[in-house]
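Good morning C.,

I know you're traveling, so I'll keep this short. The sequence:
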Amino acid sequence: MGSIVVIGNNKGIAANTFTEKCNECLDMLQKNASQYYSWMLKYELKIRSAEKSGANFKDGAIDIAPTTFNASKTWLASVFIHETVHFWQYRSGKYQAGTSAESEANIYQLAVLRLLKAPQSEIAHMLSQNGGHADLNGDGVYDEKDYQLRNY
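The tokens, ready to paste straight into the viewer:
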């Protein structure tokens, strides 16, 4: 079975705080959403503090920005799975940035939120999502311009 490495770097989030909360989220996943946690382990991912959140395919890392990090533990844990879905899509050759990829990841994220018994407000928020959250400039295409606009 693989492993997950948490990397704090003091850029925007204190390294010890980052590592502690991320490990608590991973423990929650292992205890309450073990099937997703086991699946995540297979990808040998890093979780690291970054300016913007997302799946960094080049580095094999789930990047977590301060805004995402500062959300609840249930939300942060569900984001780990959301980004893992993107690694699955990418490594299986079916990733195409945009609404389709995001919608699929949102389905898994919602399932995890439910398993973690997240607050109803988080579940309601996920239910309201249509997969377009990455198209920040609203031009119908998810690209570098959208990534640069990201504040999460």
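Safe travels,
E.
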